[in-house]
Specification:
Length: 370
């Protein structure tokens, strides 16, 4: 049994939402109606394989082991997964809505937006990445979010999680958004090139892009971990940036396939987060095209805050985060906070895995991976 691996290269920016603004009014979230019985997504052709879109970068790191096993045909029970690696979330969205994939990795705010746009024909299966954003500085002046006032910050992610997180943390720190000159760039590569060449003083980047900059320019340092800043600010919920979703029609028609995937995916994330596996995991990330170089992946994986959270833990953890995004800009999550039908309830229990590989119980609180 062989898996066909297809590589997708990003040609355009990810599907972006309206730019978030520093939140002033805090409207009451409107309840989302129960999803329509008829799905709006096109069903994928009936084949033995489950078609999955994964993303390059931190959101795809946890799947590297599973992608390797699928490629080698070593999965138990004759399972077959056809992975498509996307460089941009908009590609994964297009594949999902066209019915060309059954499951896809997405940014968490985009998952909610897609749920609304498809009238509920998308379900959130699991969270796979907590906070991955870092402020880097060519200097020693940035010690807190307040120190960004009056500075120019180069960044990627306008209209998506990075922008909303930055705006929220600036507000919590008493910094007027207008006092920070955020220069939004079309790619992490462009920001990385500026910082690595010493042409920018401050930037906001996710790992592994942030990791690569630190390795390329010894004068650049990690000034702030925005997951830690979220905790310091008393941010609601858990800073959760990546997840996997599935077409609701696929979930209804193939519940066992969904359960099998989640079990395999949990094992893959557990392997990728295991300290003893770090070197091998990094090479898998490079081989599967998720990170360009194993040396970068080896340093990035511990900072990527990979996780596997399902069921009630998943819902409890992200609802507060969606509340923050809604208050910043309702359009950032598709207009309203998703209702309970958005959250997939596993048939069999799964253990929630932190970035350190430790289980989390009900009512868990993420401590930034420390």
């Amino acid at each position: 049994m062989k898996m066909k691996m297809k590589r997708w290269i990003a040609l355009t920016l990810g599907l972006t939402l309206l730019a978030g603004c520093t939140p002033k009014p805090q409207p009451t979230p409107a309840a989302t109606p129960t999803p329509a019985a008829e799905p709006t997504l096109t069903p994928a052709p009936e084949t033995a394989a489950v078609h999955i879109a994964m993303l390059k970068g931190p959101t795809g790191l946890g799947a590297a082991k599973l992608m390797e096993e699928a490629e080698l045909g070593t999965l138990s029970g004759g399972k077959e997964y056809d992975f498509l690696l996307c460089g941009d979330p908009s590609e994964a969205v297009a594949l999902l809505t066209k019915g060309e994939v059954d499951i896809a990795a997405l940014p968490t705010n985009l998952a909610s937006t897609l749920y609304h746009k498809t009238d509920g024909d998308v379900q959130l299966l699991a969270l796979n990445t907590f906070g991955v954003l870092y402020i880097l500085e060519n200097g020693e002046e940035i010690q807190s979010m307040a120190d960004l006032e009056g500075r120019t910050v180069h960044a990627y992610g306008q209209g998506a999680n990075p922008e909303f997180v930055l705006n929220y943390l600036l507000e919590k720190s008493g910094v007027e958004r207008s006092s920070v000159d955020v220069q939004w760039h079309p790619s992490t590569d462009e920001v990385s090139t500026l910082m690595a060449a010493g042409e920018g003083d401050v930037c906001m980047l996710p790992v592994p892009a942030a990791t690569a900059v630190l390795m390329q320019n010894e004068n650049v340092r990690q000034a702030l971990d925005l997951t830690e800043e979220w905790d310091k600010a008393g941010g609601d919920g858990v800073l959760t940036m990546g997840c996997v979703v599935a077409r609701a029609g696929f979930v209804r028609e193939h519940p066992e396939a969904v359960e099998d995937f989640l079990a395999e995916y949990e094992g893959s994330i557990s392997y990728m987060t295991g300290p003893a596996n770090l070197s091998d995991a990094a090479h898998l990330a490079e081989k599967q095209g998720i990170v360009p170089k194993a040396a970068v992946a080896e340093k990035a994986i511990p900072a990527a805050n990979l996780c596997f959270v399902t069921g009630d833990d998943m819902m409890d953890g992200i609802q507060g985060y969606y509340q923050v995004l809604f208050q910043a800009d309702p359009a950032s999550i598709g207009g309203s906070i998703p209702d309970g039908a958005f959250y997939y309830r596993p048939i069999q229990p799964f253990s929630s895995i932190t970035p350190a590989g430790e289980p989390l119980g009900q009512g868990w609180i993420f401590d930034g991976g420390k």
